[in-house]
Amino acid sequence: MVSTEPCSYRLWLYCGAAMNENLKHLESHFAFGENWADFAQSLDGEAISHAETGLVKLLDAGEIADKSFLDIGCGSGVHALAALGFGASQVMGVDIDPNSVAAAKGVLTRFAPEAPWSVEAMSVFDLDPARQGVFDVVYSWGVLHHTGDLMTAIERAAHMARPGGLLAIALYRPTSLDAFWLAEKRWYSRASCSGQAVARGLYMTALCAAHLVKGRSFTRFRDAYVSRRGMSLTHDIHDWLGGYPYEPIGADELAGHMAELGFDEIKRFARPKELGLLGSGCDEFVFRRRIT
Fold first, then answer.
1. Which one of 73, 94, 176, 225 has the minimum C-beta count within 10 Å?
2. How many CA atoms within 13 Å lie on the side-chain side of 287?
3. What are phi and psi of 177, to 5 degrees?
4. Which H/E stretch holds residue 233?
5. Model's pTM, two decimal places?
6. Distance of alpha carbon 156 from the chain centroid
7. Residue 285: strand, helix, or coil
8. What is the rounded distance in angstroms from the CA atom of residue 120 to the CA atom of residue 113?
9. Which ranges of 133-216 would DSSP assign to H, the alpha helix?
10. Distance from first CA to last CA of the chain, Å, rounded?
C-alpha cells in the first residue's frame, strides 16, 4: 500500500520526548534532515574539500584557526567538519531537525572523532548567549530564510557573535516570482513522496531545457555541481522545491538591518533581483560585530 502521508512530515509523527521543545517549530517546516541524512551516507573526501573551499570563500583560514565556531542549521555537519579542518578551537552545530542532528553527529564521529565538537537539537530561536556563550564565528548557510521569522532569526544568530566576532550567512535573494515559489514550497512540503518525485522530474526537465536553449551542456553542469556546493544537484533540487517557510531578502535591506544591530559589512557576494523562473540562489555575506 502506498502511503499518502506528507513525505517530509512523516518522521515528526514519531519524535521522542527529547524533541518536544522543538515541535512547535518543526510542525510547519520542511524536513531538510531526511535529505541531509541521505547525503551524509555518501560523503567523501571530495565533498569535504569542496565544503572547505566554500567556507574559505567567506572566511579566511586564519579567521577560523583557534577560534570558536557556531554552525546554525548544521545539516550534514560537513561545514562544521570543514571548520575543524581549519583548526577551529571549538565547534558547535545546532539544527532543529533530528535527522540532521543524527547525520552531523555521524559525520563528525566518522571524520573527526577526537576533535572538540558538539551537536545539539535546537532552534535558532532558542539560542541564548547566557546559556551557550558567544562565538568568534557564527555561520549559517541557507538556513535563516526557512525559519518563518527571518528578521528575528537574524537577530538571534547575530547575538551569538562576540564583540569583534564574525557572522557569515547566506540568504535567498528576491525574485519576481517569489509568490509562486512560496505557494509551490508550501504544497511540496506537504505532498506525498510520489507527488514530490513528479515535481522533481518536472523541475529537472525544465532545468535541462534551459541549458539546451542557452547552448550549454546540462550533463557538464550536473557533474560539476558538487564542486560549487559540496552537495549533489538532486539533493539541492529537493531542498529548493521543499524549502518552506521561504523568506528572501535583498542585499541592501539586509545590510541596513545588520548596521542597526551593530554590525559592519565585510564581504558581499550578491546579484541583482532576477525573474526567478527556475528559482533563486543565495547571496552570501560576512559581517563583523562592532566593539562598543
1. 176
2. 29
3. -110, 30
4. helix 233-242
5. 0.86
6. 16
7. strand
8. 16
9. 150-158, 178-188, 193-213
10. 62
